[in-house]
Description:
two-stranded parallel ribbon, 7 helices, 14 strands, alpha+beta, 6-stranded antiparallel β-sheet
Amino acid sequence: MPLRPEKLLKVMKSKLMLLLFFGGVIIYILLMHDSGNKKISNAITFKEKLSVYGLFSGPMERLEPAPDVEILELGSTLFTDYAEKQRLVKLPKGKIMRATGNGLPRFPDGTIIAKTFYYPFAGKKHRQLIETRLLIFQDGLWNAATYQWDAAQKEAILQENGATVPVRFADKEGKIRRVNYKIPAQQDCSSCHRSGNELVPIGPTIRNLNIEVISNAKSQNQLLYLREKGLLNYKQTDHFDTTPDYHNILLPVEKRARAYLAMNCAHCHQPTGMAGRKSLNLDFATAYLNTGIRYNKQHILERTAIMGAYHMPKLGTTVIDTAGVALIKRYILSLK
Length: 336
């Protein structure tokens, strides 16, 4: 028996609504899924031992840079379970970095960037070295590897599969903390260092290097210091922005929170990052109206404040950054 026109119309409307609903779900999943990110492999073979790269002078555990290696300091840094970091850059002899704007400088082929993670006051030891991550720029491509420091703290060995290191330490307030520090696997490097289908450094942008540092017992702009040492080239008329230090409580909450999100989230949440397809662009230079923060306020609060599969950032933290979450909460609640 054929359906009456009004009944047929009702059935068709119901089917259309179901189709639109499930179609919307499928589109949402496709947009949010990161399957478009191809695997990035190294184009070079890393040495088995960190000592081969000649980054340190004297016993390696002292972390004293070799004469041809320079320390880099950043305006705002990544939170990694309260670990401290030493950042180094080693340029090929006679080569120089070039500043072309507020982003990453142009690094010469053969550049090595090293970041060592350690805890200053860990257990009975004065310092516990955990890992050193290397980025090597070769033939126009960046390559990444991680080295785990041995129990004797004399050498670091190439670690491709990741590892967990229990650490007991005192934080800056003297509170005793325990973490199971996770050293990332080789395949995890591209999760944070991805830009399109290539790896890139994250922290040492010109904006983030444009800060005052202490050198030769005096305060000096770091860009100027690097230029005077013949390591960085830029014009005297060039003007560069600065990434605020999000720890500085004298700065406006908005600037501090945007700097925190930029350093801890924007490596993925920017157009060429791992989460480039999603609705957040947290690069510090992105205008607020284009960041997506307005529409994702609740998600940002929730995902930074809990651990587990839902936690953000995905890698590098096994505990909540309570100060960072409090800063984000103050910022989110201040938004109209």
